[in-house]
Amino acid sequence: MDAELSQSRVRGTARAPPSKSYTHRAILAAGYSDDATVYDPLVSADTKATMRAVGAFGGNVTRDDTRLEVDGFGGRPGVAADVIDCANSGTTMRLVTACAALADGITVLTGDSSLRSRPQGPLLDAVSDLGGRAESTRDNGQAPLVLKGPISGGDVSIPGDVSSQYISALLMAGAVTEKGIDIDLETELKSAPYVEITLEVLRAFGVDAEATEDGFSVAGGQTYDPEGGEYHVPGDFSSISYLLAAGAVAADEDHEVVVEGAYPSAQGDAAIVDILERMGAAIDWDRENGQITVEKSNLSGVTVDVGDTPDLLPTIATLGAIADGETRIENCEHVRYKETDRVSAMADELTEMGAVVDEEQDVLTVKGGETSLSGATVDGYHDHRIVMALSVAGLVANGTTRIRGSEHVDVSFPNFFDVFTELGADVRLREE
Length: 432
Hints:
By secondary structure, the chain is of the alpha/beta class. It has helices at about 20-30, 45-55, 90-100, 120-130, 165-175, 190-205, 235-250, 270-280, 315-320, 340-350, 385-395, 415-425, and strands at about 1-5, 10-15, 35-40, 60-65, 65-70, 85, 105-110, 135, 145-150, 155-160, 180-185, 210, 215-220, 230, 255-260, 280-285, 290-295, 305, 325-330, 355-360, 365, 375-380, 400-405, 425-430.
C-alpha cells in the first residue's frame, strides 16, 4: 500500500501508542512467569511475533481490547513443536534466542528476508560460551538460528556496540538459570537506555538485575512475579517523536498539537523533547499528566549524538531537512543494522525530495539551509520508522509525496495514518 501526503496543517490532540520496547519485554517476562496480565500493550506485527514465541514455548497469550492474559511457562520453556517465525522483529529474535537456550532440546528461529540479514553472531557466541548450542544455519551469524540447551548460567563476554538487545536477552533468561549470568562488556554499550528499559521491566516483575563496573549481572533462581499479577505498558516515545515533529513543523497558526500518554520512563527516545527544544521548538512537557504540547516553530539545525537513541535518527534527519542551517547526526553507524540501513535510507529519500545530505559511515549531515523539499515518490524500505519520518516531511513538501510500502507502520504504530488524518493531515492510502 502507498500513502500520499500533501502539504497540510495539523492541530489537536493525539494519544501515543503504547511502547513497543516495553510491550516485547512485558510479554516475554509474563511468559517466564506462571501467569500475568499485561495492560495497555501495543498489539502490532512485531509484538505478535513475541506472543507467538511465548505460545511456542508452552505458554498461551489471550488478548482483548486493553490487555493480554498470559499463561506462562514458569521459567522453563518447552521445546517448540515447529520453527519459530519472528517475522520482521529483531527484538523478538534476540530475546527469544536466549530463552530458547533454556529449553532442553532444539529450537529453530527464522524470520523474513530483512531479519535474516541482521547480525546475531555475538549473541550466538555468548550462548555457546554458556554451554549451549547456538548456530547460524548459513554460518554467517544470521538467521535461521539453531539453539539447544539447557544453559545453567555463568560468565560471558559480549560486545556492547552491535545491539543492546543481546544484553537484554541474557539478563531476562539469566534470572531463571541455576547460576545466573554475569555479562562483561567488551566495548562501549550503544543504545544503553534500552537495557535500562529491560532492568525496569525486570524490577516490575520482581527480578533483581543490576549494572556492574564491567557490565551487568543477574542472579539465578529467581521467579517472575509482578505485583498484583499485572503490568501496565507506558506510551512509546519513538512513536511520539513523529507526532511532536509534525506539530513543530506543520501545526496550524495559533494552534498546537498535544500528545497524551507521554509519561516519564527509562526510554532514551524521550530525548526528542530536548532535541526539539535545542532546535528552537515551542514545546512544553507536563510530566505529571503525561502531556506534551508543541507549536509550529522556526527550527535551527543542531548536532545530535544518537549512540543511545538510534530510533530517533529518521525523525531528526527529517527535522534537519526542514530546519535552517545544518543538522549533524553523529555516532550513527549502528543505525545501519536495523530493519534497513536507516542512515542510507534517509539520505537517499530526503535527497529524492530535494534535501542536501552528506552521508559518512558514522555521521549523517542534513543541510537544511540549502534544502527545499518537494513532493516525490519515495521508498519506505519496508521499515515503519522510515515511512513515518517521510510522512512528516510530506506535511511540508511542495506538491504530493507518495511513500511506497506504507503498510509497514503496522510494526509499531498501526493506526498512524488515522491519527495523522485526525490531526488534519491530507493523507490518501492507495493500493500499489
